[in-house]
Amino acid sequence: MTKATAITAPFWARVITTFFGIGYLQPGPGTWASALTLLVWWLLSSRIEPAWQPWLALLLALAVTLLCIPAATRVAAATGIKDPQFVVIDEVAGQLLTMIAVPVSWKSLLLGFILFRGFDISKPPPIRRLERLPGGMGIVVDDLGAGLYALVAMHLFLHLDLLPR
After folding, report:
1. CA 93/CA 86 separation, integer angstroms
2. Is residue 102 in some structural domain?
3. Which one, 17, 61, 121, 130, has the greatest CB density within 10 A?
4. Containing domain of residue 126, as a range?
C-alpha cells in the first residue's frame, strides 16, 4: 500500500491511523508503531508517580481506541481495503493495554513488546475472528484482544516473580 492510495481518506484520519506517519515505515509498520509506543510510554511514565501509571496507561489506551475506531473506519472505506497495513494506531492501543499496571523497566517494556507482537501476529483464538467485525471495529478490536492476552501474560509473569517489580 502506498501513501498515494491512502490520500483519499481525510487528513485527520490518515494522521491518526498512521500514528503520525509511522505506518508508512517498512518493513513491519506495526512493529515500528509498537516500539515507538513503548518509547513514548517510557518517557511519559518516567515523569509521573508510579501510582498514577496504571491510570495513565488505561486512559491513553481508551483515548486511542475511541479515536482510532472512527479514523480506521474512514481510511478503510476510502481505500477499499478492509485492514490497510499502514493503519497502525490499533497497535498503539493494544500495546498500551499490555502495559496497564505493569512496573516500567527495560525488562517489562521488552517483554510487553515481545508478548504483544507475538499475540498480534499469531492471532490465537478468538482474536482472528475479531477481524471479521465491520469497519474500524475489525481493525482495532483484534489488536485489543492481543493486548489483553499480553496483559494477562505480563501479570502472570509478575505474579510468578518472573518479572521484577
Report:
1. 15
2. yes
3. 17
4. 3-159
pLDDT tens figures, 108-118:
999 999 999 99
The model's pTM is 0.92
Structural domain includes residue 164: no
User: Which cell numbers in the block locate residue 31?
Assistant: 512493529
Q: What is the pLDDT of residues 62-99, one digit of tens each?
A: 999 999 999 999 999 999 999 999 999 999 999 999 99
Q: Does residue 9 contact residue 2 with C-beta atoms inside 8 Å?
A: no
Task: Name the amino acid, one letter, at 1.
Answer: M
Cell numbers placing 72: 480506521
DSSP 123: -
Angle at 152 between CA 146 and CA 156, to 5 degrees: 140
**Collapsing DSSP states into helix, strand and coil, what is residue 160?**
coil
Nearest to 120 by CA among 95, 86, 83: 95
Q: Are 35 and 92 in contact, with CB atoms under 8 Å apart?
A: no
Instruction: Please provide the size of the chain in residues.
Output: 165
With a CB cutoff of 8 Å and minimum separation 6, the contacts of 40 are none
Can you state the percent helix, strand and coil of the chain, rounding each to 5? 70, 0, 30
